[in-house]
Amino acid sequence: MRSDAGRDMAGDSAWTIEFDHYDPGDETRREVILALGNGVFVTRGAVTDSGQDDRHYPGTYHAGCYDRVPNQVAGERDITESLVNLPNWLPLVFRPAAGAWWRLDELGILEYRQRLDMRGGRTVREVLAQDRDGRRLRIEEERLVSMDDPRLCALRLRLQPVNWTGQAELKATLDARVINANVRRFEDYEKRHLRVLGAELAGPGVALLSVQTSDRRATVACAQRLHAGGAGDGGNEMAGCANEGQCGHVLRLALREGECASVEKLVALCSSLDPRHADPSAAALEAVAGAPDFDTLQERHARAWERMWADVAIEADRADVLRALRFHAFHILQTVSPHTAALDAGIPARGWHGEAYHGHVFWDELFVLPFLNFRFPAIARASLMYRHRRLGAAREAARAAGLRGAMYPWRSASEGVEVTPRHQKNLLNGEWMRDHTWRQRHIGSAIAFSTWHYWLTTGDDAFMQDCGAEMMLEIARFWASIAEPAGDRYVIRGVIGPDEYHNAYPWREEAGLDNNACTNLMAVWTLCRARELLGMLPAEQAASLRRRLALDDEELALWDRISRRMTVCFHEDGVISQFEGFERLEPFDPDCLPPHLAGERTDWALRALGRNPDEFQVTKQADVLALFYLLGEDEVTGMLRRLGYAFGREDILRTARYYLPRTVHRSSLSRVVYCGALARLDPAQSWDFWLHALETDLNPLKGESVQEGVHLGAMGSTIDILQRRYLGISATPQGLRIDPAPPPGLGRVSLGLRYRGLRLQAETRDGCLAITADGGNAGPLHLLRGEERIALSPGECVEMPLPH
Ligand code: BGC
């Protein structure tokens, strides 16, 4: 069945993203939108005729390829771990004989069209250009990063002179003279991470470049093979060139007016981070030698994408909605694909598309995993294995802090130690600000949450028993050790919540806040689930785990006690306080910022004025509301009841209405969190936020810093909200619960999902949510609807009326 029932509800236009004119000022943003990748490496959609300059930033990044270098920042030595910009494999430049090399920026552009074809996973740029001598040339460039063979990528250039005939040259090179310079805020950091090991010609039309990262010594090799066809056939001559950090070939072509010549540049990129490549240079040479021609490569690549799209299986009748959802799925899958499972890499917040946050892994995976759990369980599992392999580092971090269990780092890269830089630069006044965001201990609960939901959705007991349970129990143990008794309750001090504008109390010397509601309640959630998990595992497994972790009854009783007596602070009117003392801060008046600072980051603007966001009731992003996004109304109110606090539905709304005007949404995760939290309470507002989130990376007016990478968390959450909140499909310990609440405006949508090895399709139509069990399912699919249990045999369908 897969997604065929709903196929192409909105037609083909929802498969493409197009630009119909060249805008050099927008290129670095488009490079990210048009980036291509296969879960092993991603290449930005930069022009082939430029290096790094103020308009272009060619970048290629390999999953998990970080390097550590020392930096002198704010007078202190700090080691920064950064995702490394690898050699540029794109260079492919043209010139008429003896002329200057053509650069798009220096030509007259008469026609221009560039498009991303998401279905086929490729980009096409078509240009009609004219040089100063009036020579006109049609140029078509096609590009792909193979999803079929994750070592390969390719460019094909078609050249058609419009009003001239003559000799021309094409130069195709690999270029290692690249640095990390994508992010302006990082200009004071060391930008060099690569040492060139070799740049050579390795046979007719073949060049090989190999580099090594400076500290971590990862080796990356690129091999290129050039092939010319079309009008120049037979008469082509090729000359090799290799010098400092560059190598490749120059091809002489005889071009004829009106005739099309084509050149294919096939490149293999292999790294020592991939266990399949013991010798990356040999692997790259072998891959490029065995690579088929562009058409065959493209055909196989398209087939690999077709299989993945069949599993994505999202359809909607609104083309704008469908295009954005596909765009989100596309970039998630270019960052993590079935190929990533062979590597040891997490889910970076901004994709492998740019250098924002140095490519680090945060809690954002939490927002991406629901999409993967229900469609690509192997990819989801691989990202959790990245966390599990770093459990030792998390245990060590807890021990070093005088705590127990596992304390995962807020920002993680290669080793799983904390990599949050010590300072951040305020670009408005040049000040280096101390970065306290590492205090976001809620990361641990995010990992526990992802582990739990992966298990509930996939039924992967082996993973839970071998790896997941250990992580969850150790994270729970950490919460029990950081929670301190205070009177008849427990408190958690010295942390910060998701809202990074509040790091310290204006009235207290040391940084960190007390009783952040999101942290405390997610700690309670983790403690409860860890205990519940022990009851759900086979008794023998649970007992052996407990023995291995020395988890005795007394410790479990403490977990239970804390989960009943954790502190949550409230304001007088019953609003949940973001942290203890939030109401004592000064109200924030956005109009207090002078006009020249009004559009700037609020924390920077306040500091530039000699003030500090810590003093104000202004939050960067949803914080308390993250609880309702993640857990839903019933679970949060249930937990509050368990803790002895009365809190009802109207209090949730009151809490949301209190924080909304105090939130400046300076994280792409802010609106989506409100969106999910308000799905039932305020569907119209939720819908507005959802539409806004769909445009995070596509609309230049709505997204920020897209040129530094996509916003994977926001991308994943638009899909999570659609399936879990709007269609109301969630995996629970009791089974697959269906409780739809689509907002007005959603229209027809259809999702194909996998739940515990069974496939189903959920589709809104004619006031109903229809759930169909795939005809190929091995057994019945059990659904929960209120108190009712519905069993769907393979091929059966049930229709549930949607609430009005
Ligand atoms: C947000 C975090 C997020 C990070 C990476 C920050 O701006 O405050 O919540 O994890 O970006 O996306």
Automatic annotation (TrEMBL):
Classification via Pfam families: Glyco_hydro_65C (PF03633), Glyco_hydro_65m (PF03632), Glyco_hydro_65N (PF03636)
Sequence ranges assigned to domain Glycoside hydrolase family 65 C-terminal in this UniProt record: 735-785
Record's keyword terms, sorted: Glycosyltransferase, Transferase
Superkingdom of the organism of origin: Bacteria
Presence of the UniProt keyword Transferase in the record: yes
Location of the Glycoside hydrolase family 65 central catalytic domain: 326-719
Statement: the UniProt record of this protein carries the keyword Transmembrane: no
Glycoside hydrolase family 65 N-terminal domain segment(s): 20-272
InterPro entries: 6-hairpin_glycosidase_sf, 6hp_glycosidase-like_sf, Gal_mutarotase_sf_dom, GH65_N, Glyco_hydro_65_C, Glyco_hydro_65_M, Glyco_hydro_65_N, Malt_Pase/Glycosyl_Hdrlase
UniProt similarity note: Belongs to the glycosyl hydrolase 65 family.
Protein's name according to its UniProt entry: Trehalose 6-phosphate phosphorylase
Upper taxonomic lineage: Bacteria, Pseudomonadati, Pseudomonadota, Betaproteobacteria, Burkholderiales
